[in-house]
Amino acid sequence: MGSKSKDTGSGADRRRVGRRAVLIGGAAAAVGTVAVAGDELGRLWWRLPGMEKKRVEGELDHKPAEWTAASRANWRRADRPDDYTIDRVVIHVVQGSYASALKVFKDPAHGAAAHYVVRKDGHVAQMIRELDVAFHAGNRDMNERSVGIEHEGFVDRPQDFTAAMYAGSARLAADICARHGIPVDRRHIIGHVEVEGTDHTDPGPHWDWDRYLKLVREASKARA
Ligand SMILES: [Zn+2]
User: Fold this and answer.
1) I want to staple 110 with a disulfide (CB 3.0 to 4.6 A). Which of 87, 104, 114, 132 is the partner?
2) Does residue 61 lie within any of the structural domains?
3) How far is ligand 1, taken at its centre, from the CA of residue 92, in Å?
């Protein structure tokens, strides 16, 4: 399950201002050279102070997903991957139903939400854009660098992790990894339990990592 963000941890060196300053320096240097391709300028304009990428309400990062917005209180506006590099996918289990996850992520008092929720039939809801920082890992640095995927069910009920859910989640994870250049391995696709400082145990001992990684690799190949 997602957990509230703490301002502790090792996030200071990844802070937005430092990264942005580096990018602006790079942009200024590029503009100073004789030839700058048009598409390069197109990518650079919004890196200037006060600029943000245009966004459309309800736009999906994972095309097969259904958009249903999380409460604005449960995520932070960002411009990933240009202010923070995305290099992790964090796997969660809801400890409840798909409907209960959508309900609490829409509740501003909950203080946490993930980008995606996967149902037992493999259906995927996107609740937060990947360019934004979702409060799901309980660790600021990890929130800033990751995309969070929740799965319907309970950690002590292996029967909740259906073939359809593994398959739908694997297609989603393969899509995220391909779009952000994230390696498909256990260093980059991790459980909430593996996040530094967490007291959460999800996805728990019944989550079949070998099966899941195999499915993500197969889905990655199918995309290529
Ligand atoms: Zn979790």
Assistant:
1) 104
2) no
3) 4
